[in-house]
Amino acid sequence: MKVGFPRAVYYYDYFPFWAGFFESLNLELVASPLTNRRIMESGLKKASDETCLPIKILAGHIQALKDVDALFLPRMVSTEEQTYLCPKLLGLPESIFPAVPQGMPVLTVNFNRRLGKRRLLAELEHFGASLGKSRVEVHRAFELGGEWQERFEKSRLKGLSFAESMEEFDPVVRPKRRKAEEGSQNLASATVRGKEPPAREGQGAEVTGREVTEQEVVGRGGSDRGVAEREVVGREVTERKVVGGEVTNRKVAGREAAGREPTGNTPEERKEPSLTIALVGHSYLTQETYANLNLLGRLQSQATVRLVEEVEAGRIAEGLRSQRKALFWSHARKILGAGSFFSRGDEVDGIIYLSCFGCGTDSITQDLLARVARREHKPYMVLTLDEHSGEAGLVTRLEAFLDMTERRVRRESDVSAHG
Amino acid sequence: MKVTFPHMGNAWIVIQALFEALDVEVVVPPPTGKGTLNLGTKLAPESACLPLKINLGNYIEAAAKGADTIVITGGTGPCRFGFYGESERQILADAGYDFEVVILEPPDGSLWGLAQRIRYLAGSKNSWARIVGAVRFAYEKSVVLDQVEDLVHAARPRFGDAVAAEKLYAKARQHLIEGTSYTSLHQVPLRLAQAIRDHQAAGGSGDKEPLRVGIVGEIYTILEPFASLDVEQQLGALGVEVDRSIYLSGWVGQHVFRGLAQGYRPLRAYPRLAKPYLGHFVGGHGLETVGAAVNFARRGFDGIIQLLPLGCMPEIVAAGILPRIQADFSIPIMTLTLDEHTGRAGLQTRVEAFVDLLERRKSGRLKRGSVLSVAGK
Ligand code: SF4
Ligand code: SF4
Q1: Which residue has the higher pLDDT, B259 or B325?
Q2: Atom 3 of ligand 1 has which residue's CA nearest to it?
Q3: Distance (Å, rounded) from C-alpha A192 to C-alpha A184?
Q4: What are the pLDDT digits (tens) for A340-390?
Q5: Where are the beta strands (DSSP E) in chain B?
Q6: Of A51, A85, A325, which is closest to B83 when you measure between CB atoms?
């Protein structure tokens, strides 16, 4: 049986668990294609106007899963004992049924760590039984899922990119190689994995060995004007990104070794990323290249970027210490904790909170973090995405923020050099 | 210590009674109005939900009357309301309002924690027996209040003129505020019912059976007429009898007393009713909205209106499910989205159109089961 998993919301944080779980049960779990224009548009059509962008994208991905025997839409209630995920995820799958194609079976199970491992396992056993799997098989699947998930999270903590960390669990995701291993390596690794990524329009463009992300390849295959425009921008960004990515990786390594970041802020170095910017927000926004107009790539071409997923639990807890009451959403806790940690230290020069219209949890979190950042005098900007977000607006705001941050950094280093 | 609290419809009557019985000095915020909302909107994050904005406005207006301590209930999620207290504290502190915020919540889900916070507010001058007595009496008041509101829901459409019903309502509310004994409390709904009968007997009522509309949705917007732009009153004036998914005492029973008390309209049955459509709670009252919609549909109501504060997560989940109930039971369901920009005129037009549709359906000009798409915007 081939089971489809939508590449949206919880995919970005929890897919490795489910990939391992299904793998162990000998069921094929495939994620939908990378987000593209068609997916976005069909999502907007099927999801309610009121809801947030990620849920609209989810509706699109559900419709994009065509050649599968069933959809898997778990109800992820909580992944930690003390927290919840967002109410909108608690409302899955029922609230997204309008987007499910007629006649497509939906598999679902409650994943709720608050109830303790025993009851979670009981739920999973029940689910396994409906698929004809024994208790023992389900327990084994739970273990493997856990291992895969841990591997993924550790890889993110080490500072490897989302794509690098996800690659082994989802062959569709392929990281851009660094210069040294460019070209043949890129293709080789695809074959080594044995699984061919699903054929897709625009595949030809990719074989040139150029550093093009899948995302942009898909965009190129599209058919109308909007896409063509995107292509140009996309390519330009990609090329810049190669340089940026290089430097980024080197910088991260350097900092780890020296424990301290090099501080070169002379105007000549302007083109090199001299700034370090934290990009915080839900992973399904920061890593959703299509919806965020490649914000992460753009940022990486101009600055060293730190992400929430790279911050260890201890530092998140430390960051949260100034809050009198604990936030009860997993993601919000991590975002606020990491964001507060970034605000306090001098590792990052500024913080960008990527949010989206209609996000209920962000309305609280982004405000709490703004207050922390203000107290710590850390430059802070909220970027709010919606389905109509345009490149121009995004670029302008990004540039303005980076300029402002850079001026501040330079002024501060002047002060400290002379004072 | 001068305690204040956010307005939520008539809840202030109950809260004031509680604190006064304990000799705690209490500042009831001025009635919520446009100015209140404007104050709150200025301080609140733009994408915060409507209740938070109104709460903030209430506090600021109460501060002007000398309040220095806020009491609000809490929760552990997953809806935003559970974080209101802390969020509001920070917003107010940064804006220069130095409030103490006491969050009445059972931190570990136990009533003991709740009791301790009430104890803190009540101070050592009160014995436990007195505290328990005061809480019980306040709770009783909330049940009676709900009976009064329900009677008014029935009276409005049956009275020829809208003013008469509101007058009786105001009078009953006054009696309730003044009631200090169980006997006097229990007199209130009896007297109101009698007054309604008298008015009808005097020929002050229309002759046809009114339409019935069930109101479901987010608790605050259901209970606070300012937030819903008096939708209940509007419906009443259009000759519609309304019922709600949640009344104050039901909410208090479930939310504050953890189900130990059930209130006037128990919420207990809703999850079971909702089950075929939504199998899990989603925070706030999303599950109750779905369950109540099924309940109203089964009871043969003519239509259902969902109140959804813009961006409200649990109600958005419910809104995604209501169309199925609409189709299965062939009952028109309309969702009203509310925020600080919602205009009275626009809302009224939609409510009138909805009632018009229900009337045509009832009089048979529109066949039952014909295509209905009144849900959504
Ligand atoms: S956390 Fe925000 S963006 Fe994510 S599902 Fe909930 S409302 Fe949508
Ligand atoms: S129920 Fe809705 S409106 Fe009320 S606090 Fe929760 S999210 Fe906000």
Answers
A1: B325
A2: A359
A3: 12
A4: 999 999 999 999 999 999 999 999 999 999 999 999 999 999 999 988 888
A5: 3-4, 69-73, 100-104, 211-217, 240-244, 303-309, 333-338
A6: A325
Distance CA B171, CA B191 (A): 10
Which letter, b or e, does each residue of A96-109 get, where b requires 16 or more Cβ atoms within 10 Å of its Cβ? bbebbeeeeebbbb
Q: How far is the CA of A40 from the centre of ligand 2 (A)?
A: 27
Residue type, A220: R
Which residue from A minimizes the CA distance to B75?
A328
Length of chain A: 419
Nearest to A368 among B90, B282, B283 (CB): B90
Pick the CATH number of B210-377 from 3.30.70.1350, 3.40.50.11900, 3.10.20.600, 3.90.550.10: 3.40.50.11900
CATH of B2-126, one of 3.40.640, 3.30.410, 3.40.50, 1.10.287: 3.40.50
Beta-bridge partners for B3: B26, B69
How high is the pLDDT of residue B109?
Answer: 56
Is B321 within 8 Å of A325 when comparing Cβ atoms? no
* Chain A nearest-CA residue for B103: A325
pLDDT at A7 over 60: yes
For the segment A323-354, what is each residue's pLDDT rounded down to a tens digit? 888 899 999 999 999 999 999 999 999 999 99
Q: Is B107 on the interface with A (CB under 8 A)?
A: no
Structure confidence by residue, pLDDT tens digits, A153-186: 999 999 999 999 999 999 888 877 654 444 444 4
| A86 CB within 8 Å of a chain B CB | yes
What's the CATH number for A258-410? 3.40.50
Whether ligand 2 lies within 6 angstroms of the CB of B80 is answered as yes
Amino acid symbol at A14? Y
For residue B175, give both structure tokens: 């009696």
